[in-house]
Amino acid sequence: MTKQELRVKYKLLRAAIDEEELEEMSMEIANRLLQLPIWQLSTYHLFLSIKKQKEINTEFILHILQGKDKNVVISKSDFELHTLSHILLTDNTVMKVNKWGIPEPVDGIKMDERQLEVVFVPLLVFDEQGNRIGYGKGFYDRFLASCNSETIKIGLSVFPAEEIIEGVLPTDIRLDYCVTPEKIYQFEK
């Protein structure tokens, strides 16, 4: 299926998930993440969930990261340039939900993408080769392209992998892992 066909299909599938089931799957994904060989690192980028899009609840992951005393970095979106800036999450970080429903920091300590060791990546669907489809604006592809080559990219999905996504572009950044409630997928570099 093409990117657009898959985007439509998975938005509908996600819309059909009830809140309780989503919470359960989100917790299973967070627990499964503990099996990955990433916990010796110190700086992690985490997206905060867009509730109206029924994204996985990343609060469970946030609690794990804070419990392990990790540096957590979150993004602020620029919808004119389709870019993200990155802010270190601290006890003093003031959060606000923007008009698209994305919780974001108002301001704070800026972080360079090259400092990030692990990035948890939102997505609608992914395939067995580690390709992903987001909402189609390219925010994460641009962001991931500016991370250093050693940054570990981990997709989070409530659904299993598609066999293949048609129409993958050279600018599409592949994942290293994708974690679902049932399985950890690891992709070749």
Automatic annotation (TrEMBL):
Superkingdom of the source species: Bacteria
Enzyme class: ligase
Cofactor(s), by name: Mg(2+)
Pfam families per record: 5-FTHF_cyc-lig (PF01812)
EC annotation from Swiss-Prot or TrEMBL: 6.3.3.2
InterPro entries assigned to the protein according to its UniProt record, in alphabetical order: FTHF_cligase (IPR002698), FTHF_cligase-like_sf (IPR024185), NagB/RpiA_transferase-like (IPR037171)
Entry GO MF terms: 5-formyltetrahydrofolate cyclo-ligase activity
Family (UniProt): Belongs to the 5-formyltetrahydrofolate cyclo-ligase family.
NCBIfam families in the record: MTHFS_bact
Name recorded for this polypeptide: 5-formyltetrahydrofolate cyclo-ligase
